[in-house]
Each structure stands twice: as structure tokens, then as C-alpha cells.
Amino acid sequence: MIFKHIFKAEANWTSKQTPANPSKRFYSKSHKIQIEGKPVLDVSAAKAFKGDPSLYNPEDLLLSSLVSCHMMSYLYVCSQNGIEVLEYSDNAEATLEVNQDGSGRFVEARLYPKVKISNSDQIELALELHQKANQLCFIANSCNFSVVHEASCEVI
């Protein structure tokens, strides 16, 4: 049986600038994303694309979604396998390639999950479960680029 869930987001942008040269339009990239019942997200383009570097950008949010979803999937498979996870951190990175025509795409994401568990006999299994977590991860399953995991695990 397949369960479907609908997610909604509203984007709002208003031109606040009058271009000095009307023949060359430059639009602000800053806008707001509203999801019902949640705080408004102030978003812009990445600095490389003339956005406000102090705001989140779509590329930040895509990578963050992938990292968060993998972590939650990983914690789920660990709970299913009796592994007590005490700490989890990740310093992920993603590579975006931009073509001369301005189009582009992510070509790879690298996750570096660092996991701390309570039982030294489970280190090997804890590392293997990143593969299962990746198979379950909603966001990873939606990506058309490779997601590489370079995990580490230690006991505390």
C-alpha cells in the first residue's frame, strides 16, 4: 500500500528596487517562504548568484534536507537493530556545477556522519546501517545525483 502526503509551501517576493538602468534589470533575490504553522523562512540566492549571503539559499536548504533526512532514517534503522546512538553529527557538502548557459545541477553530495554509540560490539553494524538509511531516506530517493557516505563510528 502506498501512502501519499502533500506538502505545501508558499513563496512571496516583491520588487523593492528601481533599476538605475532599465535596460539591465537586476532583481533582488531575497524572498520569503511560508509553510503553514511554521516561522517564515527568509531566503535568497547564494552569494555566488548575487544573493544575500546572510540568508538561507535553495542550495543550503536542499543539502540540509538531505542531511536531516539521512540522520532521521539512520536513527530509525539503528532503533530497529538495537543500537543505542548517543550522538550524531555531520559536516556534509554538495557539489553544484553551473553551465555556461546558466543552467546547473548538483552532481554529488558527500555526507560525513560521525556517530557515537554505547556498545563497541556494534560498530561494524552501525557503519553498515548508513546504506540502509540511504535506501529509506525520502530526500536521497528524490535526488538525481549521487549521495556518498563517509561515516565514522566510535564508542563513548
Percent of sequence in beta strands: 25-35%
Question: How large is the count of helical segments?
Answer: 3
Helicity level: 25-40%
Protein structure class: alpha/beta
Shape: elongated
Tell how many strands the DSSP assignment holds.
9
Average pLDDT score? 94
Q: Give me the side-by-side strand order of the main sheet.
A: 1-2-3
SSE sequence, one letter per element:
EEEHEEEEHHEE
Largest sheet, strands/sense/barrel: 3 strands, antiparallel
Task: Point out poorly predicted stretches.
Answer: none
Radius of gyration: 20 Å
Measured between the Cα atoms of the first and last residue, the distance is 40 Å
Write up this protein:
The structure is a single chain. The chain is of the alpha/beta class and 156 residues long. The chain is 27% helix and 26% strand. The protein has three helices and nine strands, in the order E-E-E-H-E-E-E-E-H-H-E-E. The strands form three sheets. It has a three-stranded antiparallel β-sheet with strand order 1-2-3, with no helix packed on it. Strands 4-7-9 form a three-stranded mixed β-sheet, with helices on one face. A three-stranded mixed β-sheet has the order 5-6-8, with helices on one face. A hairpin with a 5-residue loop joins strand 5 and strand 6. Helix 1 packs across helix 2. The chain is elongated and about 65 Å long.
